[in-house]
Amino acid sequence: MSVSRLPPARPDYRARLAADVVRKGRANRFPLAQKLRQSITGLFFRQAHSEPRMLYQAYQSQQDMMWLTRAAACAVVPVLSDVRWGLNDYTPLRKLAAACEVFALADLTHHRPAFGIDAVTVDGHEVPVREEPAHRTAFATLLHFRKDSDAIQPRVLLVAPMSGHFATLLRETVRTMLADHDVYITDWHNARDVPLADGRFGLDEYVEHLITFLGVIGPGAHLVAICQPCVAALAAVAVMAEDGHSAAPLSLTLMAGPIDCRISPTEVNKLATAKPISWFEQNLIGVVPARYPGALRQVYPGFLQLMAFMNMNLERHVNSFREFYEDVLRGDAAKANAKRRFYEEYFAVADLPAEFYLETVSLVFQEFALPLGKLKWRGRTIDPRAIRRTALLTVEGEKDDICALGQTLAAQDLCAGLRQYMRTHYIQAGVGHYGVFSGRRWNDNIYPIVRDVIHVSD
After folding, report:
1. In CA terms, which of 73, 136, 164, 213 is 20 to 30 Å from 144?
2. pLDDT tens per residue across span 30-56
3. pTM of the predicted protein model
4. What are phi and psi of 64, to 5 degrees?
5. Over the stretch 377-393, which tens digit does the pLDDT of each residue have?
6. Of 317, 316, 312, nearest to 347 (Cα)?
């Protein structure tokens, strides 16, 4: 989980992205482009100075005010790009169309994109895949990717982070694992869509969801947690082991997770400890506007989390949007569509329940409760030494700037009750945080190890 703080007096990532791309593309010679740049810059500059509890309302007001402008930009693009009109023969109009596409792409959405996994290749044959809810609560759906196949494969629960994005961020992870496994995923709901009457959702409830979901899947399953949920996953397995739960997983894979943030602290870790937890509560927690099902629920807004991620590598994103503008201008559809798909997913944000966010910052990033033996679930101290029959695999990326080397490895020392042959640790050279669970090295190097640990333990 990344921990963010509101930027100082300056426009946020969308203002800089659109304004810089429009300026670099010289599209600011046109009145519409000038209007787009001035509007988003001014609105986001004012939003950064809003009262903390009014932050969400300020954001929503900005979204509402910009709706017509975004709609106009989206409507202009197909007209200017339609070869039947011949308008795309004029360079200034092509630049205007490209600028409008940049502006439209920089918009945020709050709805989960589709996984879009319709088929997968199993043993050389293409097998249809359909999504089926196996269990549902107010805060999450246990989503099963059921394959039309008689093949018996290990059942795996993939634990997606609740960190500002939807579970679809793991789409390629799911697609890869489906070839050899019967895959389930924790499909966390957007907190702003959960009615206040459904109660709180903190770290206790998160762990309880994992225990419940494993019980629904049944004995003999495997657990794979990616990034933020590694702490909760280890806690859930420890509780199940201590209770002799019949559905305790046969293996636990922890990938790039903050088990012990005292080790090689990253900028994310330093930011979490730079302020008291009261600062995070006062400055980063908003209230869901009345128009949504979760009205009046306190949340850590997804758009703030996105700002944190963007500001970590802002120039790279600015350059990516500039390249997108140039790709559209040249008519390079392949490159433009690749960037469009990435940012459509990246800009789909989900709000986090305030309790979960604040407890994660406090217990995981500030108090280091798990490695210090102080983490509790429902009043019970979590003891990873109780894990004796669940094989453990920890995976880290050499260049991970969110969860540094050693932070996930710490789980190996905590699980002192495991025999040595049930422990595996792997460091992937040359990859950052996202490269641990996506991309070429995930597919070619990391996934085979994950698969082998699961199959040997099954």
Report:
1. 164
2. 343 344 344 333 433 344 444 556 788
3. 0.84
4. -65, -40
5. 999 999 999 999 999 99
6. 317
Per-residue pLDDT of 419-449, as tens digits, reads 999 999 999 999 999 999 999 999 999 999 9
Average pLDDT score over residue span 158-173:
95
pLDDT at 13: 39
Tell me the residue type at 69: T
